[in-house]
Structure formats: structure tokens, C-alpha cells
Amino acid sequence: MIETNNYFLSENNIPFREFFNFGLSVDCVVFGYVAGEIKVLLIQRDAEPFRGCWALPGDLVPIDQDLADSASFVLRKLTGLENIFMEQFHTFGKVDRHPAGRVATVGYYSLVNSDNYHPVASAWVKETKWFGIKDLPVLAFDHTSILDTAIRTLKHRVRYRPVGFELLPTKFSLQELQALYEALLDLKFDKPNFRKKILSMDLLVQLNEVQSNVSHRPAKLFSFDENRYQALRKEGFAFDILTKG
């Protein structure tokens, strides 16, 4: 680069400052799980563009804030939700994805038990609501594409990392754990194969308890071995359970 007229020119002679006319945002895909169904948290916008439309919780990154902190900040500002771990999954940078100008967005996702979180519309948000991922409204911007990418990412990562610690109660049955995986992957597993695979991971601790207040035969209850759970999150595994035909 060469310096001229008190600012820099890039190697192709475009004023270096032109590259700073570029917005950066974050969009949060918060997946919830309740009653055997995967849901996603959406907001109804009360500001232009797309006023009145449903969208993922997202906003521009403040100029004085690190990207690593931005997803939690934006989620708290728009929905009041706090202490949710968000993981970055993809960056979306099509030139025309935002009507106001060039804005790239970084997608973050999280898994929570939606029974435990009660979002409240804040800032320029009119309403918040959990939607089943198979019953979604039309979304603003390119948020349908962002959500589709997040769902594909989730389905891929479920096959190589354990899930459930954030979504299930402390004590659960193998049937409840299988229902969770079936909902996440949109598949039906062969029951004996699922149980054989899960138990072979040494991921679960069998409790000396059974279900209570159920109309069917009470099932044995389990909990996660937290140390083993965290180790498998780092090491990974192959979740190659046979599905029903």
C-alpha cells in the first residue's frame, strides 16, 4: 500500500477507507426442546427494515465490542435471555443480503430446554415466540437460509458430540433420551441398537430409581456422567446407530 492525501490506497488503488464502509452483525439461532419437539426462538421486528416480520434475534455488532461477546449481548438486549452458551457456526456474506447496505453476519447457535427460558421482547422487538422448526413463518432478510444452515450444522454435530445435558431433566429414561435424538435428527432409531450404542459409551449413570406417576410400566432412570460427557464433547464419537426402515 502507498500513502497519499493522508489516507492509504490498496494495491488496486481503491481508497483503503472504502473497505471500512461495511457492517457486521450477529444472528442467534436458539434451539429449544420441549415435549419431544425441536423449536427455535424468533422475534417479531418493530423496526425497519422488515417491520412486523419474524426473524432470528440479531443486530449489528457495536463498534467497541469484541465479536466473541456480541451474540450474548444481542440476545440479552432483544430477548432478556442470559447465561446461554452460544457457538459460532457460519458466516453469511452475500453482497445484497441486507437492504441497508453491505452487511455480513456471523451465525451463532445454542441448545436450551425452552421450558426453562422465558424470553421477553425488549428494545425494538415487538414479540418473542418459540416456533416448531417444521411450522415456521416467512422470515426476514436471509434468515431462512441461516436457520437451514444451523439445522444442518446441528444434525451433523449431534452425530459426533453428545447432547442432552442442556435439554433433558437431571434424571431421564432411555426412551426420553432416544426421543431427543430422534427429534434432533428427524429420524427413527431401532430401540435395541440405540440402547446398546448409548450404554457402550459409558456416558450414563444408572440410578436406583424408576419413573413415577406414569400410566405404563415405570422405566429405569439415568443421569449423565458429567466428566465423561465433557470428555466426549472434546474427543467426539461416531453415532452410527441403525435407523428403522
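the 2nd protein, sequnce then structure:
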Amino acid sequence: MTLIWEQVVVDALDPDALAAWWVEALGWVDISAGTDDEPELRPDADTLPGLLFVKVPEGKTVKNRLHLDFRPDDRDAEVERLVALGARRVDVGQADVSWVVLADPEGNEFCVLGSRRP
């Protein structure tokens, strides 16, 4: 049996707006653009996994049980860029660590990691 990781599903009050934010943040493409389908983002049309944004009636109320980690070339510059796009720093009890925890406009936490050690 083989499993292929297709996507991560993200609950959202406004899937279109949240997907548009993530398009800006990641530079990915919305492969559902121009359709009535739920927004689905991928690095490019043929690359998996992606992010699928689905509408839910309630807002986020507690810490994520699953989150995404990103490793940029320059952590501090990337954090600054993401905050300028509308992310915010959040404290989930991480203390003194080499990564920064941010939340997207709907409050979903994600981490921006420091450089990988050799």
C-alpha cells in the first residue's frame, strides 16, 4: 500500500481571503482560481502537497494541534516580511528557541525556523 500526501486542509471563516494571504506569503499558485471549488494552493500546479482551504462556521479558539514549519534563508527577514503581510507573533509557550511562532490572519500558528546547522 502506498500513501501520497495530497494536502493539508485548513479550516477558515473566509477561505478565499485566507488562501489569498497564503499565496502572498508562500508565492504558491491557487490551482482552483476561476472555479467554484474551494481554494487549493500548491507550489506549482503539478507539485504536492498543497493547502486546501475549507469554510467553517466558527473561528479558531485554541492552539493548533498541527502546524506548518518553514525554513527560509534568512529567518529574521522572513518574519519581518510575513508580519508586514499581516501575520502576528504568538506565544504558545515556546520559551527561548531558534524559531519564531507566527499566526496567519485567522490565527493559525506556523513556525519560521532558523538556519539548519551543518
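Helices lie at 15-26, 75-85. Residues 1-59 form one domain.
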